Amino acid sequence: MYLTPQHVLLAGATGLTGEHLLDRLLNEPTISRVLAPTRRPLAEHPHLENPVGDPAVFLPQLGGRVDIAFCCLGTTLKQAGSESAFRQVDLDMVVAFSKRAREMGARHLLVVSAIGADATSSIFYNRVKGEMEQALKAQDWPQLTIVRPSLLLGERVEPRLGERLAAPFARFMPGKYRGIEACTLARALWRLALEEEDGVRVIESDELRKLGKK
Question: What pTM does this model have?
Answer without folding.
Answer: 0.89
